[in-house]
Amino acid sequence: MRVLVVGSGAREHALCWSLAASPLVKTVFCAPGNAGIARDAELVPIAADAVDELVVYTRSERIDLVVVGPERPLVLGLVDRLADAGIRAIGPTAAAARLEGSKAFTKALCARHGIPTAAFRVFEASERAAARTHVVAQPMPVVVKADGLAAGKGVTVAATVEEALAAVDAAFDGAFGEAGARIVIEEFLEGVEASLFALCDGQDALVLGTAQDHKRAFDGDRGPNTGGMGACSPAPPLTPALVERAMAEIVRPTLAAMASEGAPFRGILYAGLMIGRTGPRLVEYNVRMGDPECQVVLPRLMSDLGQLLLGAADGVLRRMSARFYPRHTLGVVLATRGYPGPVERGSELRGLEAAEACEDVLLFHAATRREGGRWVADGGRVLTVVGSGASLAEARARAYAAVDKIDWPEGFCRRDIGARALDASADRSGNG
């Protein structure tokens, strides 16, 4: 089987790494990929959102399966176009991708079908005054979200009315482009946040794993929201009983709801959950693997990823199962200083080989390139360093031991990834 992975980050590196190990997969291609991914896949110089070019390429190169990593090509309808060309793909159609592309759509779906989530109101840009009035009437904290895709940065958990009003104005003033032309203002959920990943074929779903991530840029969950600064798997709050409850009350009802409304969901459904006193509630959906969650979930997967994805594409998941290594994984993201704001590219990373030589450690590249035999940074989030161990503490120690082998003064990372999972007193977070 010839497989094309679409995307260029550490998530796509993890997908390529896992698929390259599948006996069913003859060749892995990645469009556009990065220098690190080139060790596990053949790079294709086509942008992830260049839908027309990707369709032409898959037909000309006789690609058997396309695995779409990021959300943008899904929302743009890449899977629809591939289906029209007779090419199998892992990912939802544009209609089903609205589960991530529009938070207002997902909230309305939950309301129609009784799926547990936070209370909410939706406001258009023309309703700024009404949105501000609504905020003033809410108990604090309150959550303000851009409706559309904002690269993980369109959410504000406002502790005060002033912060909430500023978030409303920022969205309507264009801080998130078109994504903020509509906003969702919702109830703050008390509890512990965790993520559940399910592989879906339109009717049935298999659990692919769970994870707990760290979105804030700096230690102690301070600083701006980012695409993610680290994660661990399995997610400590999600016991097997809670996973099954989330599947029964949230994921499977969502699949049934989407099918009943004419947009069956096929692909990887990422449920952001808040685990509170009354059980799990949905924070929001993503319609692909998370980043950096993918980098810690896939190394725990014992089953053949290629076989599972083929089963989802062919609609036979009910006859399949997923098995996992009884291990813990923890990933630390290394980013260029200044992230999530503007960053300078081209600084050299030294010591990657020494880090990768550490016991039970993997390096997944997000934004690197080779320049004169050197590894250099080529973006904001640059690497995810993943440690594995019999316990979360062991996985964490191995990940940070490898991080300490990397010499990169222009970069930074959080030093407390996994700390809240190891600290029983850390039992409260916000639905961001």
| Percentage of β-strand residues | 25-35%
The helical percent reads 25-40%
Radius of gyration: 21 Å
Q: Uncertain runs with pLDDT below 50, 5 residues or more? A: 424-432
Whole-Å distance between the termini?
39 Å
Please report the number of helical segments: 14
Please tell me what the overall shape is. Answer: globular
What is the mean pLDDT?
94
The largest β sheet comes out as: 9 strands, antiparallel
DSSP summary, beta strand count: 23
Provide the structure class.
alpha+beta
Can you describe this structure?
- Helix 7 runs antiparallel to helix 8.
- The strands form five sheets. Strands 10, 11, 14, 15, 16, 17, 19, 22 and 23 form a nine-stranded antiparallel sheet that branches. The protein has a five-stranded parallel sheet with strand order 3-2-1-4-5, sandwiched between helices.
- The chain has 432 residues and is α+β, with helices and mostly antiparallel strands.
- A hairpin with a 3-residue loop joins strand 10 and strand 11.
- Helices cover 29% and strands 29% of the residues.
- It has 14 helices and 23 strands.
